[in-house]
Design a protein that fits this description.
By secondary structure, the protein is mainly alpha-helical. It has helices at residues 6-17, 19-28, 33-43, 45-54, 67-81, 84-96, 101-110, 112-115, 117-133, 138-141, 156-160, 169-182, 184-194, 200-208, 210-224, 232-246, 249-261, 266-280, 282-298.
Amino acid sequence: MTAGTKAERLARLGRKYGAAAIENGMRLRPDDFLDEIEWRDRIDPHFTRSWLEFTYGGLFARKGLDERTRLLVALGQFVAMGELEELERQIPGALSAGATPREVLEIVLQTTVYLGHLRASRGARACVKVLERLGRLDEITSTRLPLEGRMPERSLAAERMKWPAAKSAEEAAWRERMVGKYGWKGVSTRLRTQAHQSNDAINIYDRVDPHFLGLWFDFIYGELYPRGIVDDRTRLLMMVGVCLALNEPVQMENHFRGAILLGAKPREVLEVILQSTTYCGMPTTIQTVRVLDRVVKDMNRGSELDAPA
């Protein structure tokens, strides 16, 4: 422990490293930021200054993505990387940025699709531990979905109106065959949110194991994705971050398109990538920016990625 009161310690670090970065760090991580910076200061002041200017003084002060979304995306990435200690540290910051306890937990639960239930369950337990410590677990138990989820609120007729137009008569017939064979609750969500994706994997499962495909449709698209606790834009931006953390380029490209089609701006997707540099490193994010640049050009929205004049 460095000598002096907390205010004196912060003032010293502010003079040394810049008040703006120190103040931003304390705002985002009030419980542990001071000890973290003092530890870094003892070990290597030059690296500490460079790191602070890049992160808390630079990336984490940008306005390209609202802070609530930025932190929710990061929480999903921490679960993907198995960084549960960092997950616990940053949950209070997400709450301070306007996320509800239920939204924080929902981000963790939604990672089940790409991470499996083991990692997602460990993340959920860590999340609950933090909320218990903060005295906010009642905001989870009082906002639980009913046992049947959102199904009583849904209507095939209403959702059909949100499906993108089929590109051909063959595609329209394929849609009706999927609804007839697997039910509409999962197929409809797939068409509403991810009709831009290839159906090759679905067709393979339909041929080799339709029973599994039915379970897959129902769990992912019928139950998890339409839970409605976080909006589709936020959920898909989080999935972009998770795919980046996993270095999974195929699904990441799919989620670039999905996030943009469901309301995210191309520069918001870019910001998810750039912010990920601090957690996932440069090689992955450099390659990812190239993919995003190609995708937005394919969507005839390339000019929206250009920096403002």
